């Protein structure tokens, strides 16, 4: 009889521990969701910061930036290698930027 009580007590402890673990996961998932929302907000701020920096120079004003997890991708066309380099340098100066993928095309005959 004592063994049956002990087994019942152990099973109850396992069930309670399992429930506590489930509650902890839900809290972690929620925190992860908040972190993702914060990252999206941060990426939006980074993208806007890079747009502003590029718009300040007529040679880089037409470039389009995108940001994901602090990694900025630049797309568009410029008329010189200097403008290509300026775009990457301007993006790197924006707070929160961790990397720049400069996919800008140098097109000396473009309008």
Features:
111 residues, alpha/beta, 3-stranded mixed sheet, two-stranded parallel ribbon, 5 strands, 59% helix, elongated
Short description:
The protein has 111 residues and is of the alpha/beta class. Helices cover 59% and strands 16% of the residues. The N and C termini lie far apart (91 Å).
Structure description:
The protein is α/β, with parallel strands linked by helices and 111 residues long. It has one domain (2-106): Histidine-containing Protein, Chain: A (2-Layer Sandwich), CATH 3.30.1340.30. The chain is built from two helices and five strands, in the order H-E-E-E-H-E-E. A three-stranded mixed beta sheet has the order 1-2-4. Strand 1 (64-68) and strand 2 (71-75) form a beta hairpin. The radius of gyration is 26 Å and the shape is elongated.
Q: Return the CATH topology.
A: Histidine-containing Protein, Chain: A
Number of strands: 5
Strand order of the largest sheet: 1-2-4
SSE arrangement, N to C: HEEEHEE
* Spatial shape: elongated
Q: Percent helix among the residues?
A: 55-70%
Radius of gyration over C-alpha positions, nearest whole angstrom: 26 Å
**Alpha plus pi helix count:** 2
SSE diagram, text form:
Layout: H1 2-55, E1 64-68, E2 71-75, E3 77-78, H2 81-92, E4 99-102, E5 105-106
Parallel strand pairs: 2-4, 3-5
Antiparallel strand pairs: 1-2
